[in-house]
Design brief:
Number of helices: 6
Strand content: 25-35%
Distance between the termini: 30 Å
CATH superfamily of the largest domain: L,D-transpeptidase catalytic domain-like
Number of domains: 2
CATH class of the largest domain: Mainly Beta
CATH architecture of the largest domain: Beta Barrel
Shape: elongated
Helix content: 10-25%
CATH topology of the largest domain: L,D-transpeptidase catalytic domain-like
């Protein structure tokens, strides 16, 4: 079953509905954790880069929120039809800023090393071992070939699964290049590729998926905490 992504606007609404009005300190005056990186660039909807003080000032108005767009943090105005239901205070706004600044913005999978790297602002913050498809060498060519794709994609939605796969993150395979290649070869490209967890009967198995990227359930929980839809993923040989 698909689940709506925890995009910035939805997060803000969930945090804000029913909240009482604040102590009026500025969100930017809060103590930042060691994971909080004020050098991160956030873009406006026109693609203009914004630095920390610039986007904090916008967030502090209570009228803006964040989303991830193919690995870039983007700030956008909350639609009026949502804004009228939102109540904000400095604690809520600081929480929103903090969540998005500690969020990862890129995933790299190195198939040969069986490793996934979660990055924030060009720095690796987690290293996670993976298992791949049952025919792991080479890029995915067609439906049912057991290969894990290679290339640049994004996480386009979150997935709830039964106990066999725990939860997961759907990868935007096939892209246009994948589809064109499959047509050229006369095959269907396949799909439903994701990063997902590992059921108890598969914990000790190697490269057991149908082309997905399997990690432990505890590592899936880490991804849930530090990623959202729109994050980029690069899968290498």
């Amino acid at each position: 079953m698909r689940v709506l992504s925890n995009c910035g606007i939805i997060i803000l609404v969930v945090f804000c509905l029913g909240c009482v009005q604040p102590p009026a300190e500025s969100a930017s005056e809060k103590t930042l954790s060691s994971a909080f990186d004020t050098t991160i660039i956030v873009y406006d909807v026109a693609g203009k880069p914004l630095h920390y003080r610039q986007y904090v000032q916008l967030i502090e108005t209570g009228k803006y929120s964040f989303k991830m767009n193919n690995g870039n943090r983007v700030i956008e105005k909350i639609p009026n039809e949502i804004l009228k239901y939102v109540k904000t205070d400095s604690i809520i706004l600081n929480s929103l800023i903090h969540r998005w600044m500690v969020m990862a913005d890129n995933i790299i999978v190195e198939k040969a090393k069986r490793m996934l790297y979660l990055e924030r602002n060009g720095k690796i913050i987690f290293e996670i071992p993976v298992q791949l498809g049952n025919s792991p060498v080479g890029a995915k060519q067609k439906e049912g070939d057991g290969r894990t794709p290679e290339g640049r994609y994004c996480i386009d939605y979150n997935v709830n699964r039964d106990a066999a796969y725990y939860r997961g993150f759907h990868i935007s395979y096939p892209n246009e290049k994948d589809q064109a290649n499959a047509r050229r070869l006369g095959f269907k490209p396949g799909g439903d590729i994701m990063i997902h967890g590992t059921g108890p009967t598969r914990i000790n198995l190697k490269d057991w998926t149908n082309g997905c990227i399997a990690i432990s359930n505890s590592h899936i929980d880490t991804l849930t905490k530090y990623t959202t839809t729109g994050i980029s993923i690069e899968i290498k040989k």
